[in-house]
């Protein structure tokens, strides 16, 4: 049985004050897929993500991870399978040093100290942060914090990675490095983001959420080419997919073509 | 609000000092915590009029700071920063307790002044010992020692998280204060009322963050206990450290070394 699939069916959720955050959300994610969840502020992206590893339990409908339904009883397994990277790395890095933080999860899994150490070293090496091992998290740059936050999740060796706005607050180079890193993963990946260029580069498939509903689900390029759909969901075509303002050529076509002309 | 910035940079400096590698830094954190605890108990257990017998205790912070490469100027500034509390605590003693208890050079000294001096001295000793402990062990090291010394996990977790998030909270407060002062246009904003609102804001943000941190911890299998992999090994030198210092403190507590030495010196000069 594969642990790398997600099935969400008829998921609904309302906050205690009555606000409906999710309404009959359904989709399936296959093994190794990279999926972007996009939508305007307050569309319900974060609420949806929180259902994927049981931070919220489904009030209506169901969430299945690798065939296991998310319920109170399966939480421990679900959380081991689904690693979640939070939007603000400061929320995720709470231990005195980077190494202790990355080791936090594996220690809670009850692994022996040698294994924990190995996992910490591997995870930090994977995100290129091995030299930060003994540093306290609050001395790191935003890019470094983000890398370490991802390492803390990798150290749990999850099958599925769920990320909330991974590129927020990063400078262009850190963002570029992050995209390279995320591309190199073989996990099933779900990325909630406003950074549509990142979504276009990373994910073949995109789910558009608007007012708690899935309004589109399909190949990223098709969805980002549909201006009326994007406008209705409070989004805009990513810069990388707009026609060149100088020569008028479509960005993707010109990239695929022989050479990008200079106009 | 620049005092927030100063406070943060001070903590930061403490942290950097704690990452040095000296003989004192290498002593097992548990040994340092235990020795400091014995030190504090001995110092505070003296009679309230005691001054002279307290003086020998100064060797502990001084020796540790010197051996641990902790600059005395930095320690002095920190002590000064936390001193208002101690200064206030005994401020009324000289007024309330006017009975002459001792004579110095023919001038009578009131009990209140003696007990006030004693309070200040104890403050200096205990506070400097605690600071030197943190500066040579790191806050995380002290927490680790407490955990291994079987202090309940709830307290240790509290301390760890407090220290971790004091930087985040400080930064947040700093940003809010900056935003306020930018729009206060040289005036004092609208006074105290604004500050109470800002504090409320800060509290709400703290709640929200605490919630998110807790979720992040739960995601990684948090079950109420923070586990730390770092292993501590008690060496012979650590045992000698604890036993040696503790014996010295008990000696200082039982024998009035200052008077003894004073007696010897004056006796010899006669």
How would you characterize the overall build of this protein?
The complex is a heterodimer of chains A (263) and B (270). Chain A has eleven helices and ten strands. Chain A has a single domain, classed as P-loop containing nucleotide triphosphate hydrolases (Rossmann fold), CATH 3.40.50. With 263 residues, chain A is α/β, with parallel strands linked by helices. The longest helix of chain A has 14 residues. With 270 residues, chain B is mainly alpha-helical. Chain B has two domains: 173 residues, no CATH class; 69 residues, no CATH class. Helices cover 73% and strands 3% of the residues of chain B. Chain B has twelve helices and two strands. Chain B has a two-stranded antiparallel sheet with strand order 1-2. Chain B is globular, with a radius of gyration of 23 Å. In chain B, 26% of the residues are buried. Chains A and B meet through α2, α3, α4 and α5 of A and α8, α9 and α10 of B.
